[in-house]
Amino acid sequence: xxxxxxxxxxxxxxxxxxxxxxxxxxxxxxxxxxxxxxxxxxxxxxxxxxxxxxxxxxxxxxxxxxxxxxxxxxxxxxxxxxxxxxxxxxxxxxxxxxxxxxxxxxxxxxxxxxxxxxxxxxxxxxxxxxxxxxxxxxxxxxxxxxxxxxxxxxxxxxxxxxxxxxxxxxxxxxxxxxxxxxxxxxxxxxxxxxxxxxxxxxxxxxxxxxxxxxxxxxxxxxxxxxxxxxxxxxxxxxxxx
Length: 241
Fold this sequence. Notes:
Helices cover 40% and strands 14% of the residues. With 241 residues, it is α/β, with parallel strands linked by helices. Helix 1 links the parallel strand 1 (4-12) and strand 2 (31-40). Mean pLDDT is 82; it is low at 178-184.
């Protein structure tokens, strides 16, 4: 892997809070300096009483804490920078503040509107001087690759599907990079005074109390634990049974 002194920002999104099987994250590690970012939508705070329940929030917050803990270790030697705001506002400010030359993130696969939002983010980043690397990581093959192979003729059986895609390259790396695969990363970024004044403020990972949940609601939480560490533990345990 070739390294340069450019600064990359990897934007962790809600449905990709992991280090394994994350090709966009892998792409960011081509840079010597990488900043890892998660952005909390302020609407989530205002509408948590009408939005996700306490167990859902608990799972998310535990996932963020687990991710931050893993980023502190080699080869990342970093941390998760959390911001509160709209990504279309926060990301260009971070690009300017950190003089980032690349933004990486997981591409959306959920809806046409989500794809349009990805395009907006990409255009904003490029307008601020950063290149874009977004990759699919929900599926083994990218939707574009499958459309290129099948067109309007969808496979009628799994056997036919497997035969048709046998020559395609999977879009995911096998695992997360190991310490021997990537050089130690630096988190030191020199910012100008003008860019510092425009920089958004970091926020701590909130608690359920910060989100307005009551002691009674918190006391009824389930025992499911969020985070990649717990997920991998359950996966390995299941596969070994």
